[in-house]
Amino acid sequence: MAKQKSWTADQLDPSRMPRHVAIIMDGNGRWAQKKLLPRTMGHRAGMAALKKVVKACDELHIPYLSVFAFSTENWKRPITEVDYLMNLLVEFLHKELQELHDHNVRINIIGDYTVIPRQCQVEIDQALEMTRHNSGLVFTIALNYGSRKEIIDTVKCVVEKIQAGQLEPEQIDEASFSAMLYTHNIPDPDLLIRTAGEMRISNFMLWQIAYSEIAVTPTLWPDFTREDLIKSLLDYQNRERRFGGLSK
Ligand code: FPP
């Protein structure tokens, strides 16, 4: 059998790294099902994969990493699964916060987390407060996030500003609109990775991914490793980004 090709960081061109990698972490449930385990175990294994990917992004000097942890649509899941996911986030922050802080990681949240369980909010506020002055990797967790809701909230913000006389309709352009999105403090993703093979965006950063390169891998999220990340980065570096223009 042919030896599988391996992907290592030294194959990457440091001058062509993406500034922002965003990930739709999909396939936790399928991973568990394949192993005849409850879905929750898939999420737990997903948390372990996430830990490694955050570490890898930090080591590879990627300035921004964003992950889709819980969508506005995920409330439709059984309450036991929703609770498990919330508790997992608390556990993740509890266990990892100090190490993330030691590595100069700044935690950022997008989405309305004021409606999630109190203990979770407390943990998030602590993480935001502790890491707010850090200057390393900006690690954004999308929590109770939906891109359509984000766009509607931004439109409401625009209307309020106009009504208050703080904004003229002529001043609305892509830059001023972007500056009012939840993601106002992070650049648009250069690379969007989706695991588990689904060819969908699932209401994630619809505005922000207008020119992102998309990499879909069949690997289920709990199996996604540093090497898979490097492979996606190598694929990204082999693409030509034209932003609607022509080849140089
Ligand atoms: C999608 O898999 C994954 C999620 C809805 C949750 C992502 C959560 C984690 C990776 C856990 C750790 C996260 C944090 C922030 C601690 P799915 O359940 O939809 O999988 P399926 O499509 O195979 O059923």
Briefly characterize the structure.
The protein has helices at residues 28-34, 39-59, 79-102, 118-131, 147-163, 174-178, 226-237; strands at residues 20-24, 64-71, 106-110, 138-145, 191-194, 213-216.
Task: Indicate the overall shape.
Answer: globular
The number of helical elements comes to 7
Strand arrangement across the biggest beta sheet: 3-4-2-1-5-6
CATH superfamily: Decaprenyl diphosphate synthase-like
Mean pLDDT over the residues: 96
Number of strands: 6
Largest sheet: 6 strands, parallel
Oligomer: single chain
Quote the distance from N terminus to C terminus.
41 Å
Bound molecules: farnesyl diphosphate
The CATH architecture designation is 3-Layer(aba) Sandwich
- Give the helix proportion (percent range): 40-55%
CATH top level assignment = Alpha Beta
CATH topology: Undecaprenyl pyrophosphate synthetase
Q: What are the segments in which pLDDT stays under 50 over at least 5 consecutive residues?
A: none
Radius of gyration, rounded? 19 Å
Order of helices and strands: EHHEHEHEHHEEH
Class from secondary-structure proportions = alpha/beta
**How many structural domains does the protein architecture include?**
1
Structure notes:
- The protein has 248 residues and is α/β, with parallel strands linked by helices.
- The protein has a single domain (16-146, 187-236), classed as Undecaprenyl pyrophosphate synthetase (3-Layer(aba) Sandwich), CATH 3.40.1180.
- Helices cover 40% and strands 14% of the residues.
- It contains seven helices and six strands; from the N terminus they run βααβαβαβααββα.
- It has helices at residues 28-34, 39-59, 79-102, 118-131, 147-163, 174-178, 226-237; strands at residues 20-24, 64-71, 106-110, 138-145, 191-194, 213-216.
- A six-stranded parallel β-sheet has the order 3-4-2-1-5-6, sandwiched between helices.
- Strand 3 (106-110), helix 4 (118-131) and strand 4 form a beta-alpha-beta unit.
- Helix 1 (28-34) crosses helix 2 (39-59), helix 2 packs parallel to helix 3 (79-102) and helix 3 packs parallel to helix 4 (118-131).
- Residues 25-30, 43, 46-47, 50, 69, 74, 85, 88-89, 92, 141, 196, 221 line the site of farnesyl diphosphate.
- Farnesyl diphosphate binds at residues 25-30, 43, 46-47, 50, 69, 74, 85, 88-89, 92, 141, 196, 221.
